Amino acid sequence: MAGNKKSKAKMEQAKGKAKEAVGRTVGNERMTAEGRAEQSKGDARQAKEKGKDAFRH
């Protein structure tokens, strides 16, 4: 189950990076901000999972 959540975090980060890049390219500030927010959400999810792993081992 933890592997599934880790992969979801990586996907959110990648999706956020892509959305941010597209937003910058077309000059859409809202899309750029949404991309950054998705990246942050993925980063937070990944940190949470790493914290769980630290207590497990």
The number of E-state strands comes to: 0
Helix/strand order, N-terminal first: HH
Largest sheet: none
Mean pLDDT: 90
Structural class: mainly alpha
Shape: elongated
Sheet-strand content, in percent, reads: under 5%
Distance from first to last alpha carbon = 16 Å
Unreliable spans: none
InterPro entries: CsbD, YjbJ_sf
Family: Belongs to the UPF0337 (CsbD) family.
Protein name: CsbD family protein
Biased composition (Basic and acidic residues): 9-22, 31-57
Could you walk me through the main structural features you see in this protein, from its secondary elements to its overall organization?
The structure is a single chain. The chain is 93% helix and 0% strand. It is an all-alpha fold and 57 residues long. The protein contains 2 helices and no strands. The relative contact order is 0.20. α1 (2-26) packs antiparallel against α2.
Topology of this structure?
Elements: H1 2-26, H2 29-56
Organism: Streptomyces lancefieldiae
Biased composition (Basic and acidic residues): 9-22, 31-57
InterPro entries: CsbD (IPR008462), YjbJ_sf (IPR036629)
Give a quick precis of the structure:
With 57 residues, the chain is mainly α. It is built from two helices and no strands.
Key phrases:
mainly alpha; 2 helices; 57 residues
